Amino acid sequence: MILTIISGTTTIYLLYKLLSFIYYYVLALRTGFPLLLSPIFAKSILWQILAPAVLPSIRGKLPLWIVIRLELVVNGWEFRWRHGEAQRFVGGDTFVVVCPDGLYMWCSDPVLGSVILQRRKDFIQGDVVKQFIGIFGSNVLQVWQRQRRIIAPHLSEGIMATVWKESCLQARDMIAYLVEHPGGETLGGLRSVAINVLGSAAYGYSQSWSPGIAYGMTEEGNWGSGRIAYFKTIALVADQFIAAVLIPSWIKKLPFMPKWLRVIDRQMANVPRYVKEIFDAELQKKTTEIPEGKDKHNNNVLDMLLQYSQKKTTNGLYLTEDEMSGNLWVFTAAGFDTTANTMGYAVILLAAYPEYQEWMREELCGLDADISPEEYEKCFALCPRVLAVMFETLRLFTPVLHSTRTVNGIQQLAGRKGTHILSSPMDVFVCAQIMHCDTTLWGPDAAEFNPKRWFDKQTNLLIKPPKDTFLPWSGGPRVCPGMKMSQVEFVATIATLFRQSRCEVLTLTGKEEEGRKRLMDMMDDSISKLTLQVRNGQEVKLRWVV
Ligand code: HEM
């Protein structure tokens, strides 16, 4: 009897999925884009967790027409196939993958991509993003307009001097430590810099640099409370993002699950408590540290979230408790993981290409004896080569591989070969990483690290790449509000690190070429967690020499 029920239900389910597949196929045909049919249930949690572990071992053993149907439904495929392999196979820079559980349009055409990003109401944030980003409450990505108006002004020019100063001070402490401690702590150290800069600029708390807040944090002991425990938890969730979000809490808790998964579960459950402690401390600070009669605003992101939570303002802006928690998470994760990983890749690239360290140092040596933490306005403008290193790093290792949207109703897109009809339900991905490696946009040397390409040969000024071809911060009305902050933080940190010191790869054999190849292989083996990063940051072994 039970068997009959199970097999009956399974048959009905499979039949339903077969009909869905046919329905999706018909919708996909209407788009007029090339199609790729895949039998995989791309949204399945089991697939998204197991496939990255299994695929590497079978990749070379199966024909391309099978591999591509498996690869293109695994998170992060665009980095592995960033040189246009999939586009060549499918026959277009925009194509649609049809699966039994959904339709996925991948676009690496700059013109179409730009139109999609501009049309905010036609291409909206979808449920995928809600599931992934909304784990600690709703946020700016979800109730967009109201929250964006609250948050974006707090990432304006007004905080850049603080970002610059804190980044310089953090980087100074970090370099003093690393010169004495060659090995695998550089990338973890940069994560600490990024967390502390965010803590200072956005939350008004200064904390001195210490090595590696982000790695080796799977110990079961007490993680403390409030802001420190919150930052450590966010760093851990960012580092193990897919497992943290996709595996249900009751499975993470099972006694036979690995220790790190149980720690993630415990820490995620603690987040509401940490958030409450953070906001209580901010309230306390306002009441005790600021004298009566003075303006009680601290002018940081925490204070701003508090203000909007306490009352509905005259212009109708407010935040619920859930939104405060959600925004704090998006803010912390978006602001820290992206910038930390970009700085990490830049350092590895500069270690692999020491000639560009010299090129950058030439510029830095023209500045005062040191990069002054107090002189943001003067110094930032004088470091275009460092900014070019950032752009080139973001081009080759784009932290957010694509911008995700969902088709709202039925939409028309005018393409080079006519009009395309896109119908809901369909997820749309604008693939920045693939555009960034396109030789037709960046020239035959698109795969090479060459920060000099960012300068005009005649004027020797930084160039703007052709419109919509460079999208690390996305584009359109939802463009990253932290763009300038990340640039200021990057330039201050990298300039401070490289002004006085050189970074060398620690080789296993003593041969420089071997060390360089190891770095390149590690970067090639990057994976997309919350954002793109090298698989194991502690394996990047470097030596800093003054
Ligand atoms: C190199 C560093 C960074 C990169 C590459 C980056 C990239 C991005 C991208 C691609 C988006 C998605 C936009 C879309 O959906 O189209 C985004 C959104 C966002 N980023 Fe950044 N980001 C960086 C740094 C920062 C920093 C430092 C902060 C703040 C402290 C920040 C805060 C945000 C927020 C709040 C959003 C959501 C905006 C919205 O939907 O309106 N980001 N970022």
Automatic annotation (TrEMBL):
Pfam families xref list: p450
PROSITE patterns: CYTOCHROME_P450
Molecular function terms, GO-annotated: heme binding; iron ion binding; monooxygenase activity; oxidoreductase activity, acting on paired donors, with incorporation or reduction of molecular oxygen
SUPFAM superfamilies tied to this protein: Cytochrome P450
Binding site for heme: C480
InterPro entries: Cyt_P450, Cyt_P450_CS, Cyt_P450_E_grp-I, Cyt_P450_sf, Cytochrome_P450_monoxygenase
Segments crossing the lipid bilayer: 12-29
Keywords: Heme, Iron, Membrane, Metal-binding, Monooxygenase, Oxidoreductase, Transmembrane, Transmembrane helix
Necessary cofactors: heme
Family: Belongs to the cytochrome P450 family.
Protein name, as recorded: Cytochrome P450, putative
Origin species: Talaromyces stipitatus (strain ATCC 10500 / CBS 375.48 / QM 6759 / NRRL 1006)
